[in-house]
Amino acid sequence: MTRRDEQFVLDGRSYRVISTTAERDTGAVRFVLVHGVGTSHRYFARLHDELAADGDTVSVDLPGFGGVAKPDHALEVAETASGLAQVLDALGAGPAVLVGHSMGTQWVVELAAQRPDLVQALVLIGPVTDRRRRSMPLQALALAHDTVGETPGVNQRVFADYLRAGPSWYLRHVRRMIDYPIEDRLAEVAAPVLVIRGGNDPIARADWSRLLRDRAARGSMAVVPGHRHVVQHTAPRAVASAIRAFVDGAD
């Protein structure tokens, strides 16, 4: 496999793109991985490598995250999605399977609504924000609950990225995350959708994940028992297997 680490500046905003060309040449990017609020490509590394065995795979660090330069203001969900579309255009990467985690699910859903031509399918891992828990205190409580059950490796990666992004930048995006009505926007997306959650995820709970599955025009759901919110790091093979089966079925 061939691996590249590149920097893009588009409309004055910076992006980092880690791309892997699969052993079996598909001729185009097949998977695009989008991290959540405060984090980076690092907690996608294991899933990235699993998926790269089947298709060209890209992980994107968005403006202000993962050490990428911050823009002059915290971006709205629609602005971030539009910028991500520019990255995919620059890569010649569409249509692709967009894989988002946590707030990354909001960015890929919004991108699918804005630019359906770039989307083959959507994978929403640990989607947020549960419409019955749209407040800072409730989200903080859910995050604390998840943290105590995650592995030390997950917590080290996630909180190192939180510190790198900075508390102010992180919190400004959390406010946008809480306000974004993903369930309504998802209903406007025509592409097939797979919702994945860890069986013990206190952030993307079972009833909320089922609601999103049912809001999608063509929705399905997979659960990885015994895992929590960052299931793509703790169970990358199981998550990759679910994605492969979903993509094969969608095709």
How many helical stretches? 10
Low-confidence stretches: none
- Which oligomeric form is depicted? single chain
As a percent range, the share of strand residues is: 15-25%
Number of domains: 1
Q: Assign an overall shape.
A: globular
Topology as H/E string?
Answer: EEEHEHEHEHHHHEHEHH
CATH architecture: 3-Layer(aba) Sandwich
Structural class: alpha/beta
| Share of residues in helices | 40-55%
Number of strands: 8
Overall average residue pLDDT = 94
Any idea of the CATH class? Alpha Beta
- Major sheet characteristics: 8 strands, mixed
Rg to the nearest angstrom? 16 Å
CATH structural fold name: Rossmann fold
Q: How many angstroms separate the termini?
A: 24 Å
What does this molecule look like?
α1 (45-52) packs across α10 (236-250) and α2 (77-91) packs across α3. Helix content is 44%, strand content 22%. The chain has 251 residues and is of the alpha/beta class. The protein has one domain (2-249): Alpha/Beta hydrolase fold, catalytic domain (Rossmann fold). The chain starts with a strand and ends with a helix. The longest helix is centred in the middle third of the chain and has 15 residues, at 77-91. An eight-stranded mixed β-sheet has the order 1-2-4-3-5-6-7-8, with helices on both faces. The mean pLDDT is 94.
How is the topology of this model organized?
Blueprint (H helix, E strand, L loop, with lengths): L1 E9 L2 E9 L7 E6 L10 H8 L3 E6 L15 H15 L4 E6 L1 H12 L4 E7 L10 H14 L2 H14 L1 H13 L2 H5 L6 E6 L7 H10 L3 E6 L6 H4 L1 H15 L1
Parallel strand pairs: 3-4, 3-5, 5-6, 6-7, 7-8
Antiparallel strand pairs: 1-2, 2-4
